[in-house]
Amino acid sequence: MAIRDIRLFGDPILRTAADPVTDFDKQLRSLVKDLTQTLDDAQGAGLAAPQIGVGLRVFAYAVGAERGHLVNPVLDFPDEQEQDGEEGCLSFPGVYYDVKRRLNTVARGFTDRGDPVQIVGTEVLARCMQHETDHLDGVLFIDRLDVATRKLAMREIREANWDATVKFSPHQMTDRIF
To answer: Where does Fe cation bind (predicted)?
Structure first.
């Protein structure tokens, strides 16, 4: 188990769709432990494997009392309800914007041992499931912003004092970071 560096915006892996997991082995379990420990250290709500440089469809989450991981997630939406709320990302230190997401989600996937699992989420947990699954598809939260807001976000990112080679600092984050 190890705390890994979190890749920051500008790293190409964040824009690359992750590959499905095919081997539910010791190496996958080690990856899940690293994701979980790195997420705990960063004090975030979610962390996808590409954010630590691994192009596999796996993420860890910690939203309130809900903690775990999901391998090869597939999302379903039981209704059309939406929510608007502040969102940040461990790969964008200090950057926060309101993002429209679905209010309720059902995430289906597998544990690190290949057992099927389903996570029913609402509000923050639903937001986290969507945010992390986006990471696995190479989609970033800034891609969900309207054009004007995305321009503001890109200006803020350009003016930030971090780049794709800087290791994330936990003191920069809050518990609403995915």
So the answer is: 89, 131, 135
Asked whether residue 128 is marked as a ligand-binding residue, the answer is no
Q: Find out whether 69 is annotated in a ligand binding site.
A: no
pLDDT tens-digit profile, the chain (178 residues): 699 999 999 999 999 999 999 999 999 999 999 999 999 999 999 999 999 999 999 999 999 999 999 999 999 999 999 999 999 999 999 999 999 999 999 999 999 999 999 999 999 999 999 999 999 999 999 999 999 999 999 999 988 877 544 444 343 333 344 5
Q: Is 171 annotated as a binding residue?
A: no
Note if 159 is an active site residue. Answer: no
Of 66, 80, 86, 132, catalytic: 132
Backbone angles phi, psi at 154, to 5 degrees: -65, -35
Question: Which domains are delineated in the chain?
Answer: 12-163 (3.90.45.10)
